[in-house]
Each structure stands twice: as C-alpha cells, then as structure tokens.
Design goal:
This protein has 440 residues and is of the alpha+beta class. It has 16 helices and 15 strands.
Length: 440
C-alpha cells in the first residue's frame, strides 16, 4: 500500500511539473500564462500596446513608408453631453485613451499619446481589423478573383466546404447577417463564444479556421437580420488569404501597407508562431495610430491613393451606409444607435460619417463632409458606457478643426427618379431604351 501511495504522489508531482512547464513555457516567448495575463482589465492600457510581444504574430513590413504631412496645432474642444459642457481632456481621461490622431485634408493636425505610448507604439486594433479584411474582399472582387459577393464562402475557402459557414454568401458575411449561432459577448461573467474562441486559439494552439467551422445555424434567415459575429470575419479572412495566395499578413502588406506607404511596420496575430500560424482574422492587427488614420484617409478619398484606385468604385459608399432596414441605427436594439454596412459602423443621424470600431475603445472615425479622420486607441474595460458619447466627441473635434460654411437653402427642382446602381458583385440587368433615356 505504501508503495502505491508513493507512486501516486510521484505521478501527481510529475503531472504538476508537466502542466507547469506547459503553462509557463520558459523555453518560449509565448505561453498560456501570458495569454491569461491579458485578461486583467486594469492593465488594458499597457497590454494593448504590446500584444505582439505577448502572442505569436507575423510582420507586415512598411517597405516604402513615409510620414503624413504635418501641421500640428493645439486642440481645444468642448461638447455638450447629458446637459453638461465637457472638455476633450475629460473624455480622453474617462475613455482611457492611449493614442489620438486627427487628420484634416490628409494632414496630421493633432496628435497625443497617453499611458506610456508614443508615435512608434503599435496599438492593437481588435475589431477595427475587420474593416481591413472587408477591404481585401472588395479588392479581390475588383480584380476578378471573386466573381460575386453572392457566391458561397466555400467556393473560395475550401477549408469551410461542407460546413454551414461554407454555404453562407460573402455578402451575408460582410453584412453580419449569416444566420450563425454565435454569442458575441465580452463580459467574463456571461456566456460567450468569442472569449473561448480567442483563448482556445492561443492557449490550446487550435487553428482559428477549425474553431470557426464548428459553429452552425441559428433560427435567423441569412440576409434578413443583423447579428454581429466575429467568426463571420474569420471566414472572410480565409477567403482573402486563398484568393490572393498568401497569409493574411502577406496580403495586407501587398495590397494595403505598400500602396499606402504606411510609415511603420505592423503585425497580425496568429495562433502559433512560424509558417503554420493562421491569423485570427476577425481582429488582431497592431499598427501605429498614424497608420490607422492613414487607412481612414483612404476611405475618405473614396479608395484612391496618389491617383491610383485601390478600392473598387462604389465600394466606399455601399460599405459605409446601412445595407438594409435591419441595419439602420436603432433597428436592432442590441446595437443601440449604431447602424451597419459591410463591416463598417454608421452613427445615428449620420451625415457623411461612419467608423471602424473595436472593443475597449478603438475607433477610426471618418467625416466625409469635413474632410476629417480621427484615429483613437484605448484600453477601456467599460467602453460601452461611453459608446454614444464618443460620437459627440468625434463630431465636436471635426466641427472644431473643419467647420462647415453655412450654405443657402437649395432651391428644389423637379427631377426624374434616379435609377439605382446594382450592389457590387451583382450582375446588373440591362436597361431598356426608355429607361436609359430617363436616366441621362
């Protein structure tokens, strides 16, 4: 009996040592212990500045980088919120902002950093990265690598063949209308699918595409609802990697970083180091505040950079306006006064405004009428409480740096009813001769 007890103790000790070695991995820069440490809300402001030090990643090289033109100036902004007049500094402190870059007509006119960050800091994007992936899908469509957004995902991502996700169209994935049974909940004390997804990818080293394949349908009809699910973008990232024949980091470098002349290297997190790594495509781009703003500037310029069209004509307008009545601001109570396009958010009462958004306070805000782009990086564990207040702040910044001239009321003239263009990726039926004349 004594020998059995000694053997049992030895097994327990060995198992404990083995688990400790696996969990802490002293031989590797990436360990489950480091991943778990990410989940400390008090450290978000610093953790989100060093995600690519903690987790495996692939580098996105800035091969011909150059800074944007600068005309830096102080920014005194106040705004009204809930009957109070508040200052920009009040907001920046409350929102735990780590970086703020403001562009007007393509110039950096204001830039500030907090909590130890600076111009060279690579801030994590969280779901701001979704809009980068959507842009790659648009580029592939324009290049003819994707025939139609109404094609099923499995046509371009064979790793999803035979699964529910494989049957969903690219358009419905972009609309966040896939009919997928996925719970996008970030609170640690509530049931969630997105949190286990992230930790299973990095702690257990499971491929993000394998994890996404497992999710099936809910009771919603694809295309007839709005249900935000990060796995939709994971599928789209696989499509982009396949059609462009490269890893997600390689494709972003070739199609976005190099043409835009991004100023600094970036990274994209992947589930394991090296060539076997698969990008967590629904988030996890790390870049400087200025380079996030530069990508917003590309959208402000309708997808044209230095005279070259990088995004298909019509894409920016289609992607940044509500794509159905279900996607209008306020139509789906879960998302409050925020509408949705094709992987872009639209604020309530939008007037040429839209934004890229990531959890914990990441934004790229674009104001087309004022020619203003605002990139905000943050680490706010309670970001939801400031969601709509952030819109008031961004609008106040845009109005301060680029006020609109008061224009006379336009004289209404009778006009023919316009003929609407077909959505991108859908073959348009020819008009008859009478219709062609009416549309001219």
């Amino acid at each position: 009996m004594k020998r059995i007890l000694i053997g049992l103790v030895a097994v327990i000790i060995f198992a404990g040592l083995a688990f400790g070695g696996w969990y802490y991995r002293p031989w590797s820069p990436y360990s489950p212990a480091n991943v778990r440490a990410l989940d400390d809300p008090e450290q978000y402001v610093t953790t989100f500045q060093r995600m690519d030090e903690i987790l495996p990643n692939a580098v996105i090289s800035a091969t011909n980088g150059a800074p944007l033109p600068r005309n830096l100036q102080p920014l005194e902004v106040t705004y009204e919120w809930e009957g109070e007049i508040r200052s920009l500094d009040d907001y920046l402190d409350a929102a735990r902002v780590t970086g703020l870059t403001v562009l007007r007509d393509g110039e950096v006119i204001h830039q500030r950093f907090f909590h130890g960050a600076d111009e060279a800091t690579r801030f994590t994007s969280w779901s701001v990265g979704k809009s980068f992936v959507a842009s790659l899908i648009a580029m592939a469509l324009d290049d003819g690598l994707i025939e139609s957004l109404d094609d099923p995902a499995e046509r371009y991502a064979p790793e999803y063949a035979g699964t529910y996700y494989g049957s969903v169209s690219l358009r419905n994935l972009l609309m966040m209308s896939a009919g997928i049974d996925f719970n996008e909940e970030y609170s640690p004390d509530r049931p969630s699918d997105v949190r286990p997804f992230f930790f299973n990818a990095f702690i257990l080293g499971r491929s993000p595409d394998t994890l996404a394949r497992a999710f099936g349908a809910n009771d919603k009809v694809p295309g007839e609802h709005f249900h935000y699910a990060s796995t939709n973008t994971q599928v789209l990232s696989a499509v982009a990697s396949n059609v462009f024949a490269g890893t997600l980091a390689e494709v972003v470098a070739d199609r976005i970083w190099t043409p835009l002349g991004m100023n600094s290297d970036a990274t994209w997190l992947q589930h394991v180091p090296g060539n076997r790594g698969v990008a967590v495509g629904y988030c996890c781009l790390q870049a400087t505040s200025e380079d996030y703003a530069r990508f917003g500037q590309l959208y402000l310029q309708d997808g044209v950079w230095n005279g070259t069209r990088l995004l298909p004509e019509g894409w920016v307008r289609e992607a940044t306006r509500p794509v159905s009545p279900h996607h209008e601001a306020g139509a789906t109570p879960a998302y409050g006064p925020r509408g949705y396009g094709l992987h872009f958010w639209i604020p309530e009462n939008h007037d040429g405004e839209y934004f890229f958004a990531g959890v914990y306070g990441q934004y790229i805000w674009v104001d087309e009428r004022r020619g203003v782009v605002i990139a905000q990086n943050a680490g706010d564990p309670a970001w939801g409480r400031l969601g709509t207040e952030a819109f008031a702040v961004f609008r106040a910044i845009a109005e301060t740096v680029s006020p609109l001239a008061v224009e006379p009321e336009p004289v209404e003239e009778a006009q023919d009813e316009p003929v609407l263009d077909a959505p991108l990726g859908v073959e348009e039926e020819p008009l008859d001769e009478a219709s062609e004349e009416d549309s001219e």
